[in-house]
Design a protein that fits this description.
It is a single chain. The chain is α+β, with helices and mostly antiparallel strands. The chain contains four helices and two strands. The chain has one domain (about 1-69). A two-stranded antiparallel sheet has the order 1-2.
Length: about 70
């Protein structure tokens, strides 16, 4: 319910990529000239939603044998 209340209307996101960026699941990128560096999760995101997704993932891993494999 916390995720739903934070996201509100999903039509405000143009694509799944924009939603992933808002939530913070898209990796941060640093590009300079010919070099590209991926830096993990983007720190500029909605932290409440991101932490809810992480906790839901841990619960799925703990309870679902398919996820455990």
């Amino acid at each position: 319910m916390g995720i739903f209340s934070e996201l509100r209307d999903l039509r405000r996101f143009n694509s799944l990529k924009h939603l992933a960026g808002y939530v913070g699941l898209a990796p941060a990128m640093h590009q300079s000239g010919a070099s590209n560096k991926t830096m993990g999760m983007n720190p500029r995101s909605n932290r409440l939603i991101r932490s809810s997704f992480v906790e839901a993932s841990w619960q799925a891993i703990r309870t679902d044998p398919v996820m455990q494999a």
